Amino acid sequence: MSAIEVQGLRKQFGEVVALNGLDLDVPAGTVFGLLGPNGAGKTTLVRILSTLLKPSAGRAAVLGHDVVAEPLAVRRRIGLAGQSAAVDEELTGPENLEMVGRLYRMPRADARKRADELLARFRLIDAGNRRVATYSGGMRRRLDLAAGLIARPPVVLLDEPTTGLDPRSRQELWGVVDELRAEGTTVLLTTQHLDEADRLAQRIAIVDQGRVVAEGTAPQLKATIGDNVLSVRLADPADIDYASSALADLAAGERPRVDVVDGDIRLAVADAGASAEAVRRLDAQRVPIVAVELQQPSLDDVFLTLTSHRQTGQSDSQEAA
């Protein structure tokens, strides 16, 4: 059964095409990771699924309810937490959660009870009597997620929920996502942290320029670029262009990916003996090497291979605005 269905979704802001015929099918009860560079359309998709935006074309549905034709039915079935905590800084944590519960038309006593449950679950009891203005960034993000769960929604949309958080806060939110999946909740998680998607998601879609360019489990996606990745670090980053050209024909498909600052070269290779050949070639050309390693592909390799690396400096949020 599908919890989220998206077919040919398109969204245009003037001349900017944020979504360009995107298709997506999210199975119920799973964590589905959505990866993509800034401006790929991830936040725009979340805003359409949460009925905050209307698509220019195509169709999207949550648990069978069309986001355009049945927006109220969709809102009753989703929880939403964005890139920045949408909480009232002048209220305390319990007051924020009770207010959201009342907006869902919960009786006051039920809203208070549910708020207490979530404060305990998100380890916010000790800060209960403090104004949210005094909360740390991680505490605000946890409170925002708690507010999205107040009505026990079967579908939760998390738009880069760990952006800007310290490692401990990220781990805490990862634990919450694991708990939600264990309870049968469907989670759509957009993120730029590839380790996050690898750790949490049962399926992953990579989005670029408003379309899904690849989808599958993490192992399936890693297998699309080959069995091995050759990693070479040069002693002098100034040799990067010359060295990458010397190794280019060893790549299985895509050209080598380079880091001009650190002097790193990475390329997918079909032959496990490519590392020895790389050393031979660079040594013959007197290019000093710090390290050569044959590795298994990572999601970083998949991401960089399949996306176009647009450097517009513009986020999905700015695009949608």
Strand arrangement across the biggest beta sheet: 6-7-8-3-9-10
Shape: elongated
Average residue-wise pLDDT: 87
| CATH class assignment of the largest domain | Alpha Beta
- The string of secondary-structure elements, in order, is EEEHEEHEHHHEHEHEEHEHEEHEHH
List low-confidence stretches.
309-321
CATH architecture of the largest domain: 3-Layer(aba) Sandwich
Quick one: CATH superfamily of the largest domain?
P-loop containing nucleotide triphosphate hydrolases
CATH topology of the largest domain: Rossmann fold
Q: Specify the helix fraction band.
A: 25-40%
Supply the number of helical segments: 12
Task: State the domain count.
Answer: 2
Rg to the nearest angstrom?
Answer: 23 Å
Question: What would your notes on this structure say?
Answer:
With 321 residues, the chain is an alpha/beta fold. The protein folds into two domains: 2-222, 3-Layer(aba) Sandwich (Rossmann fold); 226-296, Alpha-Beta Plaits, CATH 3.30.70. The chain is 35% helix and 27% strand. It is built from twelve helices and 14 strands. The chain has helices at residues 42-49, 71-75, 93-103, 108-121, 137-148, 167-182, 194-200, 218-223, 240-247, 274-284, 299-306, 316-320; strands spanning 2-13, 16-27, 31-35, 57-62, 65-66, 78-81, 155-159, 186-191, 203-208, 211-216, 228-234, 257-259, 264-269, 289-295. A six-stranded mixed beta sheet has the order 6-7-8-3-9-10, with helices on both faces. A four-stranded antiparallel beta sheet has the order 2-1-4-5. A hairpin with a 4-residue loop joins strand 12 (257-259) and strand 13 (264-269). Helix 3 crosses helix 4 (108-121). It is elongated and about 75 Å long. The relative contact order is 0.16.
